[in-house]
Automatic annotation (TrEMBL):
Residues 3-93 form the Chorismate mutase domain. One of its GO terms (molecular function) is prephenate dehydratase activity. This is Bifunctional chorismate mutase/prephenate dehydratase. It comes from Caballeronia humi. The lineage of its organism: Bacteria, Pseudomonadati, Pseudomonadota, Betaproteobacteria, Burkholderiales. Its main location: cytoplasm. Catalyzes the Claisen rearrangement of chorismate to prephenate and the decarboxylation/dehydration of prephenate to phenylpyruvate.
Length: 360
C-alpha cells in the first residue's frame, strides 16, 4: 500500500516543488521591487506602512481569485508577504498591552503580520505614551468588546491624546481556564483582566463557584502568575497557554460563543482613503433643548451612516457628556467632509480621531 501511495503522491509533490520554485523566484522579484518602492518613499519622506494601500492590494487579489483559496486565506498569506517586504525597507515597532501572550499581541500580529517588532507595555496608558514618545511607530489598544461594551480607558485616552486611529481589527476571543498542573487540584483563585472575568462570569458561577476571582492587568499577566503559583488559575488564550507552558483545564469558557474584541491601531500618520473606510470622532453639545437633533442632523442631511454611538462623562461639569461616534466613509469623501464641516459649526466640541480602513 505504501508503494501505491508513494507512486500516486510523487508526481503531485514534484509539481508542488516546481510551483514552489516559481513562487520563491517571484516573491524575491516582488521583494526587490518593494525595496525600490522603499527608496522612492525615503526620498519623499513617505511612510513605509500604508494600511489603505495594503487593503486595496488584498481586496484586488481576493476579487481576482477563483479559488480554492478562500478570502481569509488570501488575506493571511499576503499580509505576511507585505509585512516581510516592509521589514526589508524598515523595522517597524508596535506597542501593545503586554506581557507576551495577550490578545493585544495577537491582534498586532494579525493586523501587521509577524515581521514586526512588538513592544509589550504594562498598561493602555503606556501604549499611548510609547507611541507619543516615538518608542514605537504604532500602538494596538482594545476599544470595545461585543459582550462587555467599550473599554473606557482607551476612550478617555483617545480624547486626551494627539494620536490618531489608523486601522482596526475585530478579533474573535476564545477564553481558556489554565493552570500549571492542567487541573484544578489545590486551585483557590482565578485571575484575569477585568473584561475577561466579566466575559466568563456565568461560566465561572456555574462551573467553578468556589474560586475567588481576582482582576489583574492582563490575561497574560494572569498566566504568568499561574506558572509560579499552583493555587492560581488563569483565564487566557491559546497563545498565552503555549508561551507560558500552562495546561488547559477547560476551553472556550466565554459566555458568548461569538465573543469579539475590536482593536484600533494608533499612531501619528494619517491614513488615506481605501474605498471601504470609517471615520471616528468625539463630539459634545451644549446643554440645551434640541441639542442632540442638531448634532445628528448634518449626518442625515448628507447621507452619512452612523455605525457606533457611545457616551462618556465629560468630568468637567454636571451631567455633561462626550459622544464617541463612528461614521461610514473617509473624512476626504465629499459627503463626509460636508457633514463634518456642518457638524463642527453646531457642536460645542469636535475632535476627529481618524479615518481608516474598516475591518472586513
Amino acid at each position: 500500500m505504501d508503494d501505491d501511495l508513494n507512486s500516486k503522491l510523487l508526481p503531485l509533490r514534484e509539481r508542488i516543488d516546481a510551483i514552489d520554485a516559481q513562487l520563491i523566484a517571484l516573491l524575491n522579484q516582488r521583494a526587490a521591487v518593494a525595496l525600490e518602492v522603499g527608496e522612492v518613499k525615503k526620498h519623499f519622506n513617505a511612510p513605509v506602512f500604508r494600511p489603505e494601500r495594503e487593503m486595496q492590494v488584498i481586496q484586488r487579489l481576493q476579487d481576482m481569485s477563483d479559488g480554492p483559496l478562500a478570502d481569509d486565506h488570501i488575506s493571511s498569506i499576503w499580509r505576511e508577504i507585505m509585512a516581510a517586504s516592509r521589514a526589508l525597507e524598515q523595522t517597524i515597532r508596535a506597542a501593545y498591552l503586554g506581557p507576551v501572550g495577550t490578545y493585544s499581541e495577537q491582534a498586532m500580529f494579525e493586523y501587521f503580520g509577524h515581521s514586526i517588532e512588538g513592544l509589550p507595555c504594562p498598561s493602555i496608558d503606556e501604549v499611548f505614551r510609547s507611541v507619543e514618545a516615538d518608542a514605537a511607530e504604532f500602538g494596538v489598544v482594545p476599544v470595545e468588546n461585543s459582550a462587555e461594551g467599550a473599554v473606557s480607558r482607551t476612550l478617555d485616552l483617545l480624547l486626551q491624546s494627539s494620536l490618531t486611529i489608523g486601522g482596526e481589527l475585530a478579533l474573535p476571543i476564545h477564553h481558556n481556564l489554565l493552570t500549571a498542573s492542567g487541573n484544578l487540584d489545590g486551585v483557590t483563585r482565578v485571575c484575569a483582566h477585568p473584561q475577561a472575568l466579566a466575559q466568563c462570569q456565568r461560566w465561572l458561577t456555574q462551573n467553578a463557584p468556589h474560586l475567588e476571582r481576582q482582576a489583574v492587568s492582563s490575561n497574560a499577566e494572569a498566566a504568568r502568575m499561574a506558572v509560579k503559583d499552583p493555587t492560581i488559575a488563569a483565564i487566557a488564550g491559546d497563545r498565552a497557554a503555549t508561551h507560558y507552558g500552562l495546561g488547559n483545564v477547560f476551553s472556550h469558557i466565554q459566555d458568548d460563543p461569538h465573543n469579539r474584541t475590536r482593536f484600533v491601531m494608533i499612531g501619528k500618520q494619517p491614513t488615506g482613503p481605501s474605498g471601504y473606510d470609517q471615520t471616528s470622532l468625539i463630539v459634545s453639545v451644549a446643554n440645551e433643548p434640541g441639542a442632540m437633533f442638531k448634532l445628528l442632523e448634518p449626518l442625515a442631511k448628507h447621507g452619512v451612516s452612523m455605525t457606533r454611538f457611545e457616551s462618556r462623562p465629560a468630568r468637567v461639569g454636571t451631567w455633561e457628556y462626550y459622544f464617541y461616534i463612528d461614521l461610514e466613509g473617509h473624512r476626504d469623501d465629499v459627503w463626509v467632509a460636508a457633514a463634518l464641516t456642518e457638524l463642527g459649526q453646531k457642536a460645542a466640541f469636535l475632535k476627529i480621531l481618524g479615518s481608516y480602513p474598516r475591518a472586513r
